[in-house]
Design goal:
Elements (H helix, E strand, L loop, with lengths): L8 H8 L6 H21 L3 H16 L7 H8 L2 H9 L1 H4 L34 E9 L10 E6 L19 E5 L5 E7 L4 E2 L5 H8 L5 E2 L2 E7 L6 E6 L21 E4 L13 E9 L14
Parallel strand pairs: 1-10
Antiparallel strand pairs: 1-4, 2-3, 2-7, 5-6, 7-8, 9-10
Length: 296
């Protein structure tokens, strides 16, 4: 159609997309265009601001590579990842869920480990951690044979792919739950960390007067056919950033109980102080699908 006025534009675009063969794609694009147009009208977007926005999107693409995913970071930093996560877990948002956003640091092919093993692969100073976790179904029955990817930052707040001093796959490992749904491992207590701020997301956070920190946490990805893949994070309970996580990942259910250990550790030996974590994760029946790895 020939556009007679501003008021015609949205309908012209929606009409042009009307023959989209895939009905779900049609629904998504229709809503995206209507909301994007409504957004521009609501703020009366200027041409200069449109320039800034397009440049911002282009810079997100340019900042993304095999080792860094600025697109995921942007989605996380505006709460979009958490919104999508909570809508699609906990019986489609009806109940509390153990799920949380994936974040930009999951790598596929973590080394397989025996339960009790340590994911510390190169010297990583910090408080020792003994984690004892369990996976149950909605009826609290244990789930055996779940493959669990664990990954975390160092106590200094860096993932191995961000830090040349750490060995490849340091603080990453893949465990399998036993007949009682349990998996357990040794590590070091993770530290809070800033998300990368040298790209467009950093510019956004500075403009909004926001700090870039995430409270310390462990990441888990739990996979078993017959169950919806559980992607989650468990947070250190005394962390000062719990209330202000830059990517809005903290829900009540995900605050772990990281208790200072007394006496000998639960297995093996530990010189000096150690911290214990006991945590139970719940997986829902559903389809076992792996996400797209944000980095290689
Ligand atoms: Fe993380």
């Amino acid at each position: 159609m020939i556009i007679e006025s501003q008021g015609d534009v949205t309908r012209a675009v929606v009409d042009a997309m009307a023959q989209t063969a895939n009905p779900r794609l049609k629904q998504i694009m229709d809503a995206l265009v209507r909301h994007a147009h409504a957004f521009a009208e609501e703020v009366h977007l200027s041409e200069a601001e449109w320039d800034v926005g397009i440049d911002f999107l282009n810079r997100i693409g340019k900042a993304t590579n095999d080792k860094h995913n600025e697109g995921v970071l942007f989605s996380d930093a505006i709460g979009f990842s958490t919104l999508v996560c909570l809508m699609n877990n906990g019986q489609s948002g009806a109940t509390e869920t153990a799920a949380a956003l994936l974040g930009p640091f999951w790598r596929m092919h973590s080394p397989r480990m025996e339960n009790g093993g340590s994911i510390v692969r190169s010297p990583t100073p910090g408080p020792q951690l003994f984690a004892r976790c369990r996976i149950v179904d909605p009826k609290q029955q244990p789930i055996a044979g779940v493959e669990v990817d664990v990954w975390q930052s160092s106590p200094a707040g860096l993932y191995e792919n961000q830090d040349a001093t750490q060995a490849d796959m340091n603080l990453r490992g893949k465990f399998t739950t036993d007949a009682d749904g349990r998996f357990w491992f040794r590590s070091v207590k993770p530290g809070p960390y800033p998300v990368p701020v040298d790209g467009p997301v950093g510019d956004m956070l500075r403009a909004q007067n926001r700090h870039p920190y995430r409270p310390a946490h462990l990441h888990f990805l739990c996979f078993k056919p017959g169950f919806k893949t559980l992607i989650t994070q468990v947070f250190v309970d005394e962390d000062k950033y719990l209330e202000t996580d830059v990517v809005f990942g903290v829900t009540r259910a995900l605050v772990g109980d990281f208790a200072p250990g007394k006496g000998p550790p639960p297995w093996g030996d530990a010189s000096g102080e150690w911290t214990g974590l006991n945590y139970t994760l719940m997986m829902e029946p559903g389809e076992a699908q792996l996400p797209q790895p944000p980095i290689k």
